[in-house]
DNA sequence: GTCTATATGGTGATAGAC
DNA sequence: GTCTATCACCATATAGAC
């Protein structure tokens, strides 16, 4: 990975050698547009314009706008799962593993904020937008994957309470609060073009630290 | 306040005796629709339908859909400011006041989640949606009010660091993390029709406690 | 595989009757 | 103050040329 990352953070691989790069290119641009203006306010024409083509190309790869949205959402979830996987495999007491997971998640939210912004929009895109049975099925799978992701954190919180490295607290509410604290960054964080990986890691640390240690001194 | 609150949480006063109740009725329904489907996906026709009237009525009170959105947003911010005001006036060390502010904010986010969901949408509704100069001016004021609100928390965090009741931490990032932790509830919280005020207060406590004390035992 | 042209439907907003 | 009727526009999606 290069030391300096641009505003189009970690796009899916677009190198023309790889098969599927055309689709990846569309997904990346759709993610950017959906983040900037929101799914419903973004027209397929706009995505095409910014790709320097017409919507004919997009409709060659995607049957509908919502199917394109689904691919962006799927990609966003994939990045989230991949990010916390190494942390979940580390050995250590319950809190240490949870800390590692939170750090990995914070970094992923910053690095992929374009995609994760779109994932958050998925919460209020529902049955009304998915017309075919296939689309409703896909939507259900994406919702399931979001729940599964939160489940990993709930399980780890429960484990850490069990091994007494965590205070006793409401597992479900705490998971939502912790994830929300990091995920809210979709609203305020935008990558500076010249931002280094080290700077981003430092920001993630500043985000996670108050959650682990709390606010109270002593 | 009644002990049991319905799903239409604390609507603005609609009693037909008060002047402006027609507008308030429209604002409340718009907030509900915008929350459920999002601003852009909601049609003026839909708001009117659910009010049992036609959009002729709405356009009698509002020049455009975005102006209606602005009123919902304004109302949402008003509720937030009013909620933390008493907490800000309490006496006590820096952390005690901050704790009171966070509890008040958490309760307000739950109580008014319909309106606060719309406020969050305001982040990505921008110049493109505001066409007239008047609308751009209004938008600027709403953005300013969001910043001012966050500023209250930043100031209090700084004060608490100064009086040494808080660890030394990044004021700006910590403010965003704390507020985000509570505000993310717009995505997962929906009022149960039979939910009591006491239950909601208990939920707010479960949200704020891990932030104050941190996760680490000891 | 990509383009142009177009069908089709919905949405914001207005005019004018009542 | 509210309704009906309608206009103008824009967006999704398709058909067929190249």
Would you kindly provide a written description of the structure presented here, covering whatever features stand out?
2 copies of one chain form a homodimer. By secondary structure, chain A is mainly alpha-helical. The first copy, chain A, has a domain at 64-213: Tetracycline Repressor, domain 2. In chain A, 68% of the residues lie in helices and 0% in strands. Chain A is built from 10 helices and no strands. In chain A, helix 1 packs across helix 4, helix 1 packs across helix 6 and helix 4 (65-89) packs across helix 6 (113-121). The first copy, chain A, is globular, with a radius of gyration of 19 Å. The mean pLDDT of chain A is 94. At the A-B interface, helix 8, helix 9 and helix 10 of A face helix 8, helix 9 and helix 10 of B. The structure holds a DNA duplex (18 and 18 nucleotides).
């Amino acid at each position: 990975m290069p030391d300096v990352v641009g505003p189009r953070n970690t796009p899916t691989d677009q190198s023309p050698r790889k098969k599927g790069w055309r689709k990846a290119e569309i997904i990346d641009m759709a993610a950017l547009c959906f983040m900037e203006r929101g799914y419903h306010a973004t027209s397929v024409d706009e995505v095409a314009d910014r790709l320097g083509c017409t919507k004919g190309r997009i409709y060659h790869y995607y049957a509908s706008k919502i199917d394109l949205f689904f691919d962006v959402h799927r990609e966003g979830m994939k990045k989230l799962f991949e990010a916390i996987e190494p942390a979940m495999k580390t050995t250590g007491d319950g809190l240490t593993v949870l800390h590692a997971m939170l750090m990995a998640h914070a970094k992923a939210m910053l690095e992929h904020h374009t995609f994760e912004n779109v994932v958050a929009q998925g919460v209020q895109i529902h049955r009304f937008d998915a017309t075919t049975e296939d689309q409703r099925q896909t939507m259900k799978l994406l919702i399931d994957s979001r729940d599964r992701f939160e489940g990993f954190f709930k399980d780890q919180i429960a484990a850490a309470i069990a091994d007494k490295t965590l205070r006793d607290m409401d597992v479900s509410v705490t998971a939502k609060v912790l994830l929300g604290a990091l995920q809210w960054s979709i609203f305020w964080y935008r990558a500076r073009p010249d931002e280094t990986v080290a700077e981003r890691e430092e920001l993630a640390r500043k985000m996670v630290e108050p959650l682990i240690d709390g606010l109270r001194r002593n």
